[in-house]
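Let's study a protein:

___
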Amino acid sequence: MRVKEMHPLCCISLESPSIGDQSPEPRMKLSRSCSVADMRSDGNAVGLRRSGSESCSGSTSFAGVLYKWTNYGKGWRSRWFLLRNGVISYSKILQPETLAAGEDVRFIGDVSSGRLKRLDRSGSSRHHKHQKAVGIVHLKVSSFRESRSDDRRFYIFTATKTLHLRTNSKKDRVAWIESLASTRNLFTLRRLNSKPSILPPDLSLSTERLKKRLLEEGISEVLIKDCEQIMLLEFSEIKGQVQLLCEERSNLLDTLRQLEASNIEGETSGVPEGDYQLTQQEFTDRGKYSEWSTTESSQELEDQGSEDEETCFFDTKDCFCFPTATDVMGERRKKLPDPCEKEKGVSLWSLIKDNVGKDLTRVCLPVYFNEPISSLQKCFEDLEYSYLLDRAYEHGNSLERVLNVAAFAVSGYASSEGRHCKPFNPLLGETYEADYPEKGVRFFSEKVSHHPTLIACHSQGRGWKFWGDSNIRTKFWGRSIQLDPVGVLTLEFDDGEVFQWSKVTTSIYNLILGKVYCDHHGLMHIRGNREYSCKLKFKEQSILERNPRQVHGFVEDVNGKKQATLFGKWDDSMYYINGIINVKPKDMSDAHLLWQRTLPPVNLTRYNLTSFAITLNELTPGLQEKLPPTDSRLRPDQRHLENGEYDMANSEKLRLETRQRMSRKLQENGWKPRWFKKEGEDGTYRYIGGYWEEREDGKWEGCPNIFGEFSNDSINTS
């Protein structure tokens, strides 16, 4: 949207307050008698204080300079902001033509001529003539709040973006918040069930003048009456159409108000109790104009571009009632421990600069880049939605089975949303066990090779077994990293039906500048040994992508005939429809929900771990005594990071990575994995058994203390 009304060049002159005006701030009026260069202020930031109805008047506008966060490359940039008639607009330079003559404007902050010259570095008058507002926000469908960590920052939220703003002083922020509040108070929500009259009660059509004129012309009364009936009938149809348009307009307004109300409610109710929630007294002291949410550092995003015409991908809707997996977690924890220390930020550029020309395999990255779980534990995250495999087993050799298997293969990517930290790289011989009776799942994994890095896993559930090994080939493209998984995952049901597939490519973008995010893309072919197979296409996200993270595919029988269509998003949900569709279905009631992601936990951390991932590194009562000395839960640097003991975590990580560099020599001396064995020269590592039996006996003879102190003798004795 753009500002439609543009006024001739205006300027601002100061007026001293009248005797009865208790406000200490000068009022500023617009006139056409002088130029913008003559604009002056008192040299100090002009604050704003509400005095009765004066500040709440709809005729008062507010203007000033604010710093707006643009991106990581440019950082904070000054912009000219104007709040008028419930709309706040901003531009890169001062736009005096947008200020109407005689308009009552209150300026916030320093608006001296020197300050404005710094804002407008272009200095050319033609820029003033053609520069348009670069952004417009309607407060009627927006909300705002102050930052709790910086007394100069505040935020304006809309349905599509967040404006991160900063003032020169705390006083200026108070002035801007109060001006937003006074404007927002002008918009009150109308009760949705109290609709005003759609049409005026006296809306009617009079034919008296027309009849009189026709009688003067000598037209018979019978013919006049017929004409009158025709006219009234036409008017009745037009009246019905007008009434329908008014009702549609009323419904649109109601929808707009509902969206506004739900936006406010969502931001308020989304605050984790005990983290950001204010007490009632604090809320009263701040005033009721602030809207609260948990987002403190989200980057402003705007969707652009068009749909990909080659392949059709669908945006799924939360319009189905489907029972999600509500596993009884028992005594498992709901949040990570509170940090013992305050975390220190790390400059990625300094890290790269200080290690230019060095062997990166010998560079110890600080734990700042890690999340408090290992790659062994992260493998188990693929089984968060194992109930899909339980359901697939119940259906036997059927279309429903392969559909649930396909949904399971996609669900393993949901936990990667917002996970920008890397898991710990396991030591050679490191293991991890997971026993979840409430899910009916047992899982075990081991690092079986250091060069190349290989992790093998084996899991058993209700009527199925799942195993595989994984290796990742990495390509560094400067601003991004491409991760190509190598290895095959195998799922075998107790009735003999087997499915195999490989994971798709993962890319991590904006490593240097911008908001880091990951994307999964490529073709996943799920091959079955009986009647059905499935092909899924993970659509690669582009710069102009409007609907990212789309997945679309088909189930085929042994003859290659397509039996069902799957579609959805890897971070949200998957649906299917019987038969083939190449366009988004108009009637979504024909679609069946296969899987939907579990909602994120209330107690979020910067790691963005899911509720399931939070439990992976937990040492439940009595568990430590049963674990082998190689289990990831006993790894000291990872445990220190989880506890927020960052200095100790860095120290232990350096020690263990020094030890890890000896692992290749251990392999050359004949080291073999304890619980897995490779099938053939190019085969998959298979679990050979024995772990759970030794765990039951409580004897771990032959399991080295890989996290202990390292000596050169360990190479020869291992």
Q: What stands out?
A: DSSP finds 16 helices and 28 strands in the chain. The chain has a mean pLDDT of 75. The longest strand covers residues 464-476. Residues 191-255 form one domain.
